[in-house]
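Entry 12.
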Amino acid sequence: MKTNFHDNDPLWKMRHAIGGVGIALLLSVFAAALAGRVLGDAFGDSYGLRVTIYGLLLLHVVVGAGVLFAKVARHETRPLSLGRVVTWFASLWLWPLLLAATARR
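Predicted 3D structure (tokens):
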């Protein structure tokens, strides 16, 4: 019986989650930049305000990526698809709500 080198590799088993969260995080960088610009212009039109908003939004999604990856990665077995990336993207932005919902159970 031949075994593949990745049969016991935990990273290989989590490849769908790693890919999904990676692509969603990359897209979130651009979304945070756009939101930082729009919100910064709406609330004061200052470069410092735009950078602060961008930084806070980016911090929010990076922390969310870590939290979600730790909670969900071992259960993510479906292949990566556009729908899965959209789900990861939305989850990165809404992770506090998802965490609160699971804490209530």
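Annotation: Residues 15-42 form the longest helix (28 residues). The chain has a mean pLDDT of 87.
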